[in-house]
Specification:
This protein has helices spanning about 10-20, 35-45, 65-75, 85-95, 110-120, 125-140, 145-155, 160-170, 170-185, 190-200, 210-215, and strands spanning about 1-5, 25-35, 50-55, 75-80, 100-105, 125. The longest helix is centred in the last third of the chain and has 15 residues, at about 170-185. By secondary structure, it is of the alpha/beta class. The radius of gyration is 18 Å and the shape is elongated.
C-alpha cells in the first residue's frame, strides 16, 4: 500500500485528485494540506511514501521550499503536481529534491504510474518537462543558472537591484554581475529585454501587471 499526502491550496483540485486516487488499488490517501507549512507538518507526522505537491500555495511558503523541507525529513518522496512548467519552476523544484514533476492536466493513468515510480525511488517527469530539461542540457550557452533565474524572476516582478539584494541576501554588486551574465546569455542589453526574452523562451512567468515596473527600473 502506497501512503499519500496531498498538498494543494484549492479545495476543488484536492477533491478531484482525491477521487482519482480513491479508485486505484494499492493507494491510500492518508492526509491533505492546503499550505506548504501544513504539508511539511503532515509529512513529518504521517510519514507517507509520496507527497503530491503543488507549487503555488497562497501566502505561505512556496511548494519548492516545502519540498526541500520534506526531503530533509528523509523518507517521503515528493512528486510535484502543478500547472506551471517554466524553467524556473522546474529547476527550483528538482533542485529542492522533487522525485518527479507532472502537470495537472496529466491523465489519471500517468499520475498513477508516476506515484508508483516515485514510491519506488524512480524519477517521473511529464514529457514537456523532460523535453525542456533535455533542451537545457543541449544548449548550455543559453542556460540560466538557478540563481540567475531567481534574479530575473525578481526583476520581472519589478524589484530594483537593491531590493533583490535584500531579498536574496546578496550584495548589489553581485546582483549586477548576475544581470550582466543574464544579458550575455540571452543576447540582450536591458532589464526589460531580458524579461521579454526569458518569458518568450518559457524560462520565467511574467506578471503583466508588473511589466511597467520592470521597464521603470531600466
Amino acid at each position: 500500500m502506497i501512503r499519500i499526502v496531498l498538498v494543494d491550496d484549492h479545495p476543488v483540485v484536492r477533491s478531484g485528485l482525491r477521487a482519482m486516487l480513491a479508485g486505484e488499488p494499492g493507494f491510500e490517501l492518508v492526509g491533505e494540506a492546503a499550505t506548504g507549512e501544513d504539508g511539511v507538518e503532515a509529512a513529518g507526522r504521517l510519514r507517507p511514501d509520496v507527497v503530491l505537491m503543488d507549487l503555488q500555495l497562497g501566502s505561505g511558503i512556496h511548494g519548492s521550499e516545502a519540498t526541500r523541507r520534506i526531503v530533509e525529513l528523509g523518507g517521503p518522496k515528493v512528486l510535484v503536481l502543478t500547472t506551471f512548467d517554466t524553467d524556473a519552476d522546474i529547476v527550483t523544484a528538482i533542485e529542492a529534491g522533487a522525485t518527479g514533476y507532472l502537470l495537472k492536466d496529466a491523465p489519471s493513468e500517468e499520475l498513477h504510474a508516476a506515484i508508483r515510480s516515485a514510491a519506488g525511488g524512480a524519477s517521473a517527469l511529464a514529457p514537456s518537462v523532460a523535453f525542456r530539461l533535455l533542451g537545457r542540457v543541449r544548449d548550455r550557452t543559453a542556460v540560466l543558472s538557478p540563481r540567475e533565474l531567481e534574479v530575473l524572476s525578481l526583476v520581472a516582478a519589478g524589484l530594483s537591484n537593491r531590493e533583490i539584494s535584500k531579498r536574496m541576501f546578496l550584495s548589489e554588486t553581485t546582483v549586477k554581475t548576475h544581470l550582466v551574465h543574464i544579458y550575455a546569455k540571452l543576447g540582450v542589453d536591458s532589464r526589460t529585454a531580458a524579461v521579454a526574452a526569458a518569458t518568450q523562451r518559457g524560462l520565467i512567468r511574467l506578471d503583466e501587471s508588473r511589466l511597467g515596473d520592470a521597464r521603470n527600473r531600466r
